[in-house]
Amino acid sequence: MSITVYVPRDASALSLGADAVAKAIGAEAASRNLDVRIVRNGSRGLYWLEPMVEVETSAGRVAYGPVQPTDVMGLFDAHFLHGGEDVLKLGLTEDISWLKSQQRLTFARMGIIDPRSLDDYLAHDGYRGLAAALKMEPAAIVQAVTDSGLRGRGGAAFPAGIKWKTCLDAAADQKYIVCNADEGDSGTFSDRMIMEGDPFVLIEGMSIAGLAVGATHGYIYLRIEYPHAQRALEAAIEAAKARGYLGDNICGSGKAFHLEVRMAAGAYICGEETSLLESLEGKRGQVRFKPPLPAIQGLFGKPTVINNVITLATVPIILDRGAAFYRDYGMGRSRGTLPLQLAGNVKRTGLVERAFGVTLRELIEEYGGGTASGRPVRAVQVGGPLGAYIPASQLDTPIDYEAFAAIGGMVGHGGVVVFDDTVDMAAQARFAMEFCAIESCGKCTPCRIGSTRGVEVIDRIIAGDMAERARNEVLLRDLCQTMVAGSLCALGGMAPFPVLSALDHFHEDFDRSAPSLLNPLPFGERVG
Ligand SMILES: Cc1cc2nc3c(=O)[nH]c(=O)nc-3n(C[C@H](O)[C@H](O)[C@H](O)COP(=O)(O)O)c2cc1C
Ligand code: SF4
User: Fold this and answer.
1) Which of 263, 280, 345, 447 falls 20 to 30 Å from 91 in CA-CA distance?
2) Distance from the CA of 160 to the center of ligand 1, in angstroms?
3) Which ligand number lies closest to the CA of residue 488?
4) Whether residue 123 sits in one domain with residue 15
């Protein structure tokens, strides 16, 4: 009887040699006349153990990792096909504490199924959400999403149900569902994992969104740097079409939903929803004025729901298990779970899906195992390049949209990037402003000009110009306020937050040779 071995095809696992490992396992099995079936699954999200190979045994799946091609012969000798002992053996996958303590709802099938197999998806509760939605009126679907408390996972945390209702209520001959798969935030990869490891769940979520608002066409706007996700999505779309899950008559319901993947041009601003629409229409990715809201006048001027990959991929479980099931997870107004992406200076990087309320400290210490360098944590940037730098003293803050807003931070798309005590926070502040200057779409003055002037002012502060030190800090804070208040979109409106957080929490890094406002020279010697 054939033995099933899982070797991830996830982009991170591939970058660590997963293809060569799969090839070596196939060749070794052939040379030993063993009947082995290799399935290329998604990653379980334990990136420090990739390529992590799993073997289906009578006791369950047994994991080994990280496996290199040179380890393969030894694994066969150790009878890994029957769960044999080896230094690389990690035990039963489901018992690995990193996974066991998670609450995987959106990522329920991640690493378990073959992402290219619709049958495998169906065998693991796939398309149950769509089946439920097909029995409901559009308004009832929208109500279920509203009742679940699901808020947009792309960054702004806007309630998904309210957006859907606005689109449902807009009368039009054509409506669209657009999936924002631009995933531009630093240290984030949950969208990519879903698209590579469980693409049908996104297709199902978009189909449900189409039924809910009356849209018959959907686009996945995918960042150009994700070729593996593109292949996985296109294969899944073809399979769904062939079996009647996409097309003119989905599941014999008489309702149509068509879906296409569109490759993005590769600009951070194209993740902003209105720039994304411009880009999708074939124009330069530049921010549109709002109103009109995209839900009323979006793609090609038609009512359009734009949601992040994780938002849409979470919809099927809500329709399948019910709004109350999902809403029962979380804290305050942050309901459900969030796939957090742990990156930067930590021993163990990867995907942690937990209900809102888990603290940064739990994430970094329990899942991350502390810093990779072994030095103390100094700062954590949560929510991508526009997120504030959180100091070590605030690590007990629960991950909750409101709790983060209260400390001047944001949860955003759930990226968590850790820095140890060797980080230069003045350099990080400069990086934030420079990022904004480079990525600015140029439509509004506070961002286009302000970010460039901001870099110059930070450079003058870092240079330690004694005579102008205090004045430059006043100028920088004033400039940040202007950008926050006057920018057209959140790129210019939020880029000041990492800068201000660095000034507020790590002021000493700006005091090279110069006195500061918080640490002024004695009266009489003061400048400015
Ligand atoms: C500069 C900028 C970049 C953004 N990049 C992304 C992105 O890469 N992916 C994403 O889903 N949302 C991104 N957003 C948020 C989108 O504008 C929008 O809020 C989101 O697609 C809505 O989906 P959601 O409600 O499901 O989060 C970005 C916003 C800004 C201002
Ligand atoms: S804030 Fe920056 S990116 Fe946003 S509209 Fe203004 S110039 Fe463009």
Assistant:
1) 345
2) 13
3) 2
4) no
472 alpha carbon – ligand 2 mean position (Å): 24
What is the distance in A from the centroid of ligand 2 to the CA of 415? Answer: 22
Instruction: Pinpoint the alpha helices (H) of 124-169.
Output: 128-134, 138-148, 160-169
Q: For residue range 378-391, list pLDDT tens digits in order.
A: 999 999 999 999 99
Reply yes or no on whether the pLDDT at 513 is more than 70: no
Specify whether 272 is located in the same domain as 354. no
Q: How do strand 53-57 and strand 60-64 relate by DSSP bridges?
A: antiparallel
Q: What is the pLDDT of residues 289-299, one digit of tens each?
A: 999 999 999 99
Q: Are 446 and 492 in contact (CB under 8 A)?
A: yes
Closest ligand to 287 CA?
Answer: 2
Q: Which of these, 292, 288, 181, 282, lies nearest to 226 by C-alpha position?
A: 181
Section 197-219 average pLDDT: 98
Pocket test for ligand 2, best of 449, 488, 497 (most atoms within 8 A of CB): 488
Cis peptide bond prior to 398, omega within 30° of 0: no
> Could you tell me the CATH number of the domain that includes residue 491?
1.20.1440.230
Domain that holds residue 260: 118-327
Q: What is the mean pLDDT of residues 203-227?
A: 98
| Ligand 2 mean position, distance from CA 449 (Å) | 10
Burial of 525 (0-12, 13-18, 19+ CB in 10 A): exposed
Tens-digit pLDDT profile for residues 392-431: 999 999 999 999 999 999 999 999 999 999 999 999 999 9
**Final residue belonging to a domain, choices 289, 307, 327:** 327
What CA–CA distances, in Å, run from 29 to 18, 26, 63, 177, 226?
A: 16, 5, 18, 46, 32
- The domain boundary residue, chosen from 297, 327, 357: 327
Residue 486: exposed, middle, or buried by beta-carbon count in 10 A (0-12, 13-18, 19+)? middle
- Pairing, β 337-344 against β 389-391: unpaired
